[in-house]
Amino acid sequence: MDASWTYFLILGASLAYPLAQSFEKRVFMYRKMKYIFPGIIATGIIFIIWDYFFTSKGVWGFNHSYTRELYIAGLPVEEWLFFLVIPYCVFFVHEVLRLFVRRFYFPGTAKIVIIVLLMAGLISLPFIYTRTYTFTAVAFVIPFLALQLLLKTWKTWFSGFMITYLVALVPFIIVNGLLTSIPVVWYNNLENLGIRITTIPLEDFIYLLGMLLPAFTSYQYLLHRFGSPKLKSKMGLESVSGF
């Protein structure tokens, strides 16, 4: 098989099961698309701009042997699709967990997690400012963590989000492990800490958090603000107060 299909095939394999199961009656992802995609698209636009800038500066780049020849703004079309496919797959994980995990809300723990992550990010900034990828990833996440404290989402959905994030790390390590080991994507270690989990830069895990948190914040707002009472009832949202 032509190696240039590699990135496409990895994304396709990632999306196949979540997309097929999106119409399963208990998960009913198809009824939530209008609440899910605005946040994914808005966040994706930010990350495409980020991606374009970092690629042009050599912070990271792509192995053309494993991507198709269609490039938009200097990025392979697969990279554009990445910012739709991966968040959607994580949303699917979230909805499945919400359905099957008996206890999904831990307000006290969620608040501690937000504060610890926020403080860790703020304290680390003076020590990582020379590492472009590291600094930018941490700096991007900080305001969204602060927003969770302001909105008091630790009382509602943030603990479920963190459970989802932790579970989603398993497929993320598999998918991103393929992308970085083949490699489809390469990184300039002068712009990151040089710490790898398997072949994945540590910063990619912060990057994933930054990609998901705004999208989930938007999703929860739209769902609570505009979701029908019937949909909220099926999701058990009556037991969780407000946004």
Task: Give the helix/strand layout.
Elements: H1 6-21, H2 33-56, E1 60-62, E2 71-72, E3 75-76, H3 77-100, H4 107-128, H5 132-151, H6 158-181, E4 185-187, E5 196-197, E6 200-201, H7 202-226, H8 229-235
Antiparallel strand pairs: 1-4, 2-3, 5-6
Helix pairs in contact: 1-3, 1-6, 2-3, 2-7, 3-6, 3-7, 4-5, 5-7
Largest sheet, spatial ordering of strands: 1-4
Give the strand tally.
6
Low-confidence stretches: 238-242
Number of helix segments? 8
* Order of helix and strand elements from N to C terminus: HHEEEHHHHEEEHH
Report mean pLDDT, rounded to a whole number: 92
Number of domains: 1
Largest sheet entry: 2 strands, antiparallel
